[in-house]
Task: inverse folding
């Protein structure tokens, strides 16, 4: 097919999670609750880290940034998904599709780099506790965060630059609830084999290598902890376990989606829902359930709110 003989597609029809109205209504109710908990949980952590002086440390600074990114990441896809579940004809313009694609990979890329920084932070804290505050000072944290944002931007702009050059002259049915490279590239009316290889290399293989490096680093940390006292080992193990859980929840779905040829499999949409909607909700719970400092900060904030609202009730 010669794409020059066909007009460019102006919009895509999103097939979404289901075409059955009853299921779509059920999904709307469930994911509305999930998104509400995601926004509440992540913004609460951001507020706690910003307001409580005891949480003004490197580890909680990074955790607060991760929570903010989780809020943004979920907000890129979830609100539109909820609106489309109630729509009879969910469509997205070509420009809006590319915009969503850019921010999806921009925030996702920052999260990948931030998790790597968090692993390095834990490595320094456990391997060199006496020099930890010297090594991981505010300047170093600022540089790491800036590098993460730049890395996320470069990663994302590459995705958009490669995608925008493709001719989309039909079909226009995108088999997902948001715009992403694997589904979008299949709609191009040209041979995309070489481009798929570039995308798999840029997305999947890099993500897989980062995941393996992170697992290796946390394994080394767990080995180091064997020589620690029981109390110190217990606290460090709890922190490392939280990090490993979050890393696994984020990286495993990404490797499944991007580190393979862009073909459709039955589990694709379920995995997409997991890492775009569900995982951002789980991260605050994973980090706070066994974290005494965060729980104490939550109780302090709750008491402060009660004290402020107390006089108005009389």
Result:
């Amino acid at each position: 097919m010669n794409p020059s003989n066909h007009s460019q597609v102006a919009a895509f029809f999103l097939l979404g999670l289901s075409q059955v109205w009853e299921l779509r209504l059920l999904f709307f109710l469930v994911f509305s609750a999930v998104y509400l908990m995601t926004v509440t949980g992540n913004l609460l952590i951001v507020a706690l880290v910003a307001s409580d002086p005891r949480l003004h440390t490197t580890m909680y600074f990074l955790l607060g940034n991760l929570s903010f990114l989780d809020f943004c990441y979920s907000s890129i896809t979830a609100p539109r998904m909820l609106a489309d579940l109630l729509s009879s004809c969910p469509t997205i313009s070509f420009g809006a599709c590319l915009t969503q694609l850019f921010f999806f990979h921009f925030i996702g890329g920052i999260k990948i780099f931030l998790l790597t920084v968090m692993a390095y932070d834990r490595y320094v804290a456990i391997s060199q506790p006496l020099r930890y505050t010297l090594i991981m000072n505010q300047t170093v944290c600022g540089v790491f965060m800036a590098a993460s944002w730049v890395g996320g931007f470069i990663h994302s702009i590459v995705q958009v630059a490669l995608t925008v050059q493709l001719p989309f002259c039909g079909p226009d049915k995108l088999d997902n609830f948001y715009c992403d490279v694997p589904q979008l590239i299949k709609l191009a009316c040209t041979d995309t084999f070489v481009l798929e290889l570039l995308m798999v290399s840029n997305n999947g293989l890099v993500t897989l290598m980062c995941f393996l490096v992170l697992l290796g680093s946390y394994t080394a940390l767990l080995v180091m902890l064997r020589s620690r006292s029981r109390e110190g080992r217990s606290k460090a193990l709890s922190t490392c376990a939280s990090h490993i859980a979050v890393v696994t929840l984020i990286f495993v779905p990404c490797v499944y989606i991007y580190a393979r040829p862009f073909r459709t499999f039955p589990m694709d949409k379920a995995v997409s829902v997991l890492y775009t909607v569900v995982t951002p909700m789980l991260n605050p719970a994973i980090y706070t359930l066994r974290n005494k400092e965060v729980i104490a900060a939550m109780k302090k904030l709750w008491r402060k709110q009660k004290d402020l609202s107390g006089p108005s009730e009389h």
Q: What stands out?
A: The longest strand covers residues 11-14. Residues 1-5 have pLDDT under 50 and may be disordered. The first helix runs from residue 21 to 51. The radius of gyration is 22 Å.
